[in-house]
Specification:
about 160 residues, alpha+beta, 3-stranded antiparallel beta sheet, 3 strands
Length: about 160
């Protein structure tokens, strides 16, 4: 079971056309191409920082005696983006005004969508039946309210 974050856009979107359901998991694409993955998610500053850190790690691998340190630095940067990249993305959306509506536990994305959208209140299409409520008011004696009773429901004096 994976957890899925449900983010809704700022403003009102009654049809949920732009709702994002984001899996909170490891990203293989972010492991191999971290700054490109960050650019696709519009995380400009993080992409720039990762790119510069990778360039620095590459330069460190060229220095004699520091090749292993440079490789481990580059690997750790890639792992950090692969493990926490989706969290960076969700936090970026929240800073832009998106709202975290729910966290859904499901086996896959389709199931997470079904769970979330099944729990939403449905819009009522039935007309309001209380348009003539003034004419349908009964007197207390006709409705039987004057008899009294004990408990939640009156059983008609039984």
């Amino acid at each position: 079971m994976k957890s899925y974050l449900v983010l809704t856009p700022p403003g009102t979107d009654p049809d949920h056309e732009k709702t994002v359901i984001l899996a909170d998991r490891f990203s293989w694409l972010a492991l191999f191409f971290p700054w490109i993955w960050l650019l696709t998610k519009r995380l400009w500053l993080a992409a720039l920082a990762v790119f510069l850190a990778q360039v620095a790690a590459g330069q460190l691998m060229q220095v004699s005696g520091f090749a292993v340190v440079g490789f481990l630095a580059a690997l750790s940067i890639n792992l950090l983006v692969a493990l926490e990249g989706r969290h960076f993305y969700s936090e970026s959306l929240i800073r832009r005004g998106w709202a975290l509506q729910d966290v859904v536990m499901a086996a896959d994305l389709d199931t997470a969508e079904e769970i979330y959208f099944a729990g939403l209140p449905q819009a009522s299409t039935a007309p309001v039946a209380a348009a003539n409520w003034v004419n349908s008011v009964r007197t207390p004696s006709a409705a039987g309210w004057d008899r009294g009773g004990i408990g939640l429901f009156d059983q008609g004096g039984r």
